[in-house]
Sequence to fold (405 residues):
Amino acid sequence: MKYEKNGFRRLLIVLSIVSLLLLTGCWSKDEIEDLSLYVGLALDEEHKTKLEHKLDKFSIRKEKENILTLTVQVVDKQNEDKGQSQGSMRDPSKKAYLNISQTGNSIFEMMRDYATQLERPVVGHHLKVIVINEQLARRYSLPQLLDFFLRDNDIRQNCAVFMSNGLARNTMEAKGNTIVPAFRLLGMMDNRYRTLKIIPPVRLYHLEAKMHARASYLLQNVTAAEGEVHMSGAAVIDGKTQKFKGTLNEAELLGITWLRGDGKGGLIKCTDPETNLPVTYELKSMKSKIRSKVAGNQISFDVQIETEGRIIEDWSMNSSPIDEAFIERVEQSGSEMVSKLIKQALAKIQKNYKTDVVGFGTRLHIEHPRLWKQMKENWDERFADIPITYSVKLNITETGTEKSH
Fold:
């Protein structure tokens, strides 16, 4: 019995020692100071830098093979380290990031060629955003442009993807020296609770599913100029070709958001019919329910939209308390405004682009799976001629404190 207890104790000691050895750290580690971490990436049509033009005569690449320019945004750890070594803050006169471009026809090759420009290899463990120029996406499909990023084990699949109607690399620039543009773009996506003009972030893993399903979808459009960026509308990606189809302006994007019911916060600007003055409604919630209707081979959809919110601004300057008649007028006016946005959006996606970016096909798939099997191959073309009705119910639950007495 005593021998068994001693044997058990020895086993525990051996296991403890082995566990401690395994927990001492990484077997194959790379110090963060020895890496160039890129956090943002931009894809544009071919645009050679001055340095690349000078190096052309030494390059083994043929000029006709260059199809795109890749720009990576590297966090400038070297500048930060200098400030820390001197016991002070980072040099405020220098930017917190470094943008480097390569031109070619293989993203992997260009990534490796950064080793000829930097003293540290670039790694994508912390890649946050990818911005694609719409003209490039018109020529090449997103599966072609994003194939490397979907295959590379170093890149996390929660990276957000954007579209730009200008040069994508311009979105990687900022006026201030303390801003890292890639982090700025990611932070702006978190502002969805303040506005309906920003769609839910589209991650790489979302895109992979959309590509395999050959579904149409939206990407947030980003406009950049002189170091400033603005979320403006959305890019439509065609399901069959997976290429850029066109752009939705801000009003059309608002209509799509109401149809999908995926807004987190925002407002509606309407007019009080009696005074003809502006009234602003701030929504607290929105819901959208899509129902499919099938009669023989005839398909139609009905969308019921509900929202609750409060009156946040009223220009009538009426000192009397808000009455039920005023609330009903604003609810009616707000509902009509939302209906107008929806009508505008449906006209664009059905007649102009013929792309279902709302999810009507998904609803048909759920409610009528057999019929969907017959329709899914050419769904976008069929979707263009399907009748869609909708109703909007706006409920004002709060009127503020100033005029509620």
